[in-house]
# Entry
Amino acid sequence: MEWILAIAVAFVVGAISAVFGVGGGFILVPVLNSLLGIPMSIAVGSAVSYVLGPATTALLYRKVRWIDFRLPLMISGGLFVGVLLGSSTLNSFKNATDGSSNEEILVLSVYLILLTTLGFFSLWETERAAKFRPVARGWLNGISFPPIVKLPEWNDSGVSIPVYAWFGVFVGFLSGLLGISGGLLIVPGLLYLFGVPAQQTVASSMIVVWIVSFQSTIVHAWTGNVDLKLVIALLAGGTIGARFGSSIGRRLRSQELRRNFGVLSLCTAIFVGIRLYLILTST
# Structure
């Protein structure tokens, strides 16, 4: 029955992920832990391993040019350091006394902050776009720590490798800790923090998501946080769900998708908040 429920959950999450073009780990991890009772560390490790399947398919399906790898490779070192830090933080809480509640409180608290922030930002951004007052981009482009690399296809003034690397550490840390693929942070980060053009952002995001998923899968498998049977069940349900969700997503406009994503993030944050409150009141 547990595996049937896991397939059903993955089907729904896969459909939602395909509609909004995100990995779905931010929904999958809280649901696996809260509704199916799967330990948080196993939910995190298995969710990020599941994301590796769709990420590989998407990368093979899209014709990625070699030039598209330059930006992801600049971030990849920071990603790996971040993934190691995030997964080791999760494992330290798991191995502590009363580890089950400790790791749940940690992961759910970070999820609550992250989803609330992304949800309100998404709604605010779409509201400004509707009033023809788009949010300014390139907030961090003024920081120019050397070495500087010029990417003439979109930035003639050059980009700071250390700034991108630290951004990678941040994304990798949350990915290793929460079991997300990183696309949830990479897309808005590249668009608004660095002003990367949308087309380049999409290509870079797909590559970064694959790198993060691959790194996180190895790290979590090494520490015993991956349940292969659960991953197979998630892949079975998620693949079918993604097929249904993709047809729905093509019918929605970009502004509608961003607004609905904001609502989805806030609804998930409410669910996480309730779960967190129940854990805190029971300890």
User: Anything to note?
Assistant: The radius of gyration is 18 Å. The chain has a mean pLDDT of 82. The longest strand covers residues 155-160.
